Amino acid sequence: MNADQPYIYDIRLPAALEPGKKYPTLFTLHGKGSNERNMADLTSDLEDEFILVHIRGDLLLGAGFQYYELRGLGNPIRESFDRAVAQLTEFILNATNDHPIDPSRRYLLGFSQGAILSMTLALTMGEQLKGIVALNGYIPEFVKTEYALRPTDGVSMFVSHGQFDSVFPVRIGYENEAYLQRKTRNLTFKIYPTDHGVSPGNQSDYADWLRRDACANEA
């Protein structure tokens, strides 16, 4: 962990890194009780094209980690959540200065708690991000009603949900779609026949989506 960064993270650079070139970058956020290694498995197909920054939550939870604490399922502790949003924003901006990251092509990919934070950061960072992939999450109501939200019309969003999700029911996925349709002109929303997880088809779809979006926005 860099002394200037609040998180332990694993960064993977493209094997054929060209000196002086800036690369599209994908910051990943894992689920509650998990770790950054699981996100590496979900992005392995993108290693040759993106810088991948896998961020470990800074709070212990059993054998894994989390970014913020909860009072109960779907009920983040506001102070803990606020701290995570502020720290992650700072982390992303600082990492851009420390590595050959194209600031116009910064993406987030999050699962569950990481998806909650990815959608929140899209709303609070706005067009400081190029896009997000949010897998099986939700947007806290206090984010929608109390946070200072930035314009997100130009932020690309791929949001998916499991049809049989036993943690966050599929209706939450449709609520995400309805809300985000009003926030961006580039929303892809998909339902997959899974529980609270990521199917191979889902992984293939968002990898292709990221490639297309990053290529379309290459300087």
Automatic annotation (TrEMBL):
InterPro entries: AB_hydrolase_fold, LYPA1-2/EST-like, PLipase/COase/thioEstase
Official protein name in the record: Esterase
Keyword flag Cell wall biogenesis/degradation: no
Hydrolase in keyword set: yes
Top-level taxonomic group: Bacteria
Family: Belongs to the AB hydrolase superfamily. AB hydrolase 2 family.
Domain Phospholipase/carboxylesterase/thioesterase as annotated: residue spans: 23-198
Key words, A-Z: Hydrolase
Taxonomic classification: Bacteria, Bacillati, Bacillota, Bacilli, Bacillales
A GO term, aspect molecular function: hydrolase activity
